Amino acid sequence: MRSLKEWYALTLHSQLGPRQGTLMVESEGNRLRGVLRLLGRENAVWGERKGSQTMELSHSLRTALGEHTCQSTLHITGETLSGTARLPGCKMTWSGKRLSREAQEKEANCE
Question: What pTM was estimated for this model as a whole?
Answer without folding.
Answer: 0.85
